[in-house]
Amino acid sequence: QEFNKRPTKAVPRSLSRSISQSSADSFTSVGSESSDEELSPLDRLQSTSKGLSDFCIKNIKKADFGRKEIEIAQQEMPALMILRKKAGGEKPLAGAKVVGCTHITAQMAVLIETLAALGAQCRWAACNIFSTQNAVAAALAEGGISVFAWKGESEDDFWWCIDRCVAADSWQPDLILDDGGDLTHWIYKKYPNVFKKIRGIVEESVTGIYRLYQLSKANKLCVPAMNVNDSVTKQKFDNLYCCKESILDGLKRTTDIMFGGKQVVVCGYGEVGKGCCAALKGLGAIIYVTEVDPICALQACMNGLRVITLTEIIRHADIIISCTGNKSVITREHFDRMKSGCIVCNMGHSNTEIDLASLRTLELKWQHVRPHVDHILWPDGKRVVLLAEGRLLNLSCSTVPSFVLSVTATTQALALIELYNAPQGRYKQDIYLLPKKMDEYVASLHLPMFDAHLTELTDEQAVYLGINRHGPFKPNYYR
């Protein structure tokens, strides 16, 4: 849906778009708010210490606290800090205008400020209504970044924030950094002329890449796009290791559950599913996997997991986690057959994986019990525990590891630099993968944190393998 005017507090919120009180709460320090902050950010007139008012956040007074969070994240994001030192003098993004729609966390703030240090002007919105860390958004605004985001936006607010990023007076973006495709979709729908100046799109999520390929098939992709999601440094690190550590954190903070002996169903055995399964299996959970891809299914089998359909196992499941990137994976039919106390959550980018619309009925009661935790009650007394209203569990309910996000963020920065500085004609109106040499460069920037020492090929060995002794060491199609 598209929203063409600034929403006000008088706009009715339908049941299907209702946001629970959890939208204003968080177990993390960066998301906590005091009771005097009840006014909507849309109704608060704010400005920074330098007079900037081109932003819309929860509370600019939290900037100092947010700055400390960003500084902590910087310590675990070495590659971006190295990139600042190496390219800071050259300013490879000098004059670039970057509009972004991502999770606004301390880790992403390090990327945004790195882009600014490299010469870019940035305007930013959030790609998820629950994942924004309000203090971090305040620190970005105080630092001169026009940011429009706060934790607990309504869908009206969400689209308004994106619109404010794009429709700024006397400002037209050169580059798009998207996470989920919502920003790109909005520009295509409402401001198609903006693409006349856009040099390229960088997209990092499965959902966003699907949407880009749909545009490409319809011959509507009018600018080059860089598929960061399928780069090795994104797939094998962010998707796998980030989810491996944060799935447990999100579940523990919201439910205090013990995993040993619990029957857990993981829907999807891509890199996200693999990370979730590895973490839960390590704590003694009994894991079942649902999968449509026979290759992924075979991997699950050979890792000692039972591959089964959701319908077969639904009555016995204690926890169900969706991570497919698809829609309607967990439906009302599944919910009706779940046992009382079953926990349902989503680790995919979009909340479309869980069919929530079918649960917004008069016969079912919703009971908000703690931040990001809702109990859905059936007439017979059965209750199902829903986390984060079906949105991304780890970024909504917990935090994510800074180090592994450093890998992805550096990849995104290099993709933007490549698109901005590429000679005319190098990239057509198509979707590209990051060159393997850049993938390897990103990885190499993180090795000093482990005091790792690479072996160097001899000339004879390089000739034998048919590669350059300095890389790339894998072909561009390697995944």
TrEMBL record:
Residues 14-26 have a biased composition (Low complexity). Gene3D superfamilies: Adenosylhomocysteinase-like, NAD(P)-binding Rossmann-like Domain. Keywords: NAD, One-carbon metabolism. Residues 1-43 are annotated as: Disordered. Binds 1 NAD(+) per subunit. GO terms for biological process: one-carbon metabolic process; S-adenosylmethionine cycle. PROSITE patterns: ADOHCYASE_1, ADOHCYASE_2. InterPro entries: Adenosylhomocyst_ase-like_sf, Adenosylhomocysteinase-like, Ado_hCys_hydrolase_NAD-bd, NAD(P)-bd_dom_sf, S-Ado-L-homoCys_hydrolase_CS. GO terms for cellular component: cytosol. NAD(+) binds at residues 270-275, 291, 394. The keyword Transit peptide does not apply. Its cofactor is NAD(+). Residues 239-400 form the S-adenosyl-L-homocysteine hydrolase NAD binding domain. Substrate binds at residues 105, 179, 204, 234, 238. It comes from the Eukaryota. Belongs to the adenosylhomocysteinase family. This is S-adenosylhomocysteine hydrolase-like protein 1. It comes from Kryptolebias marmoratus.
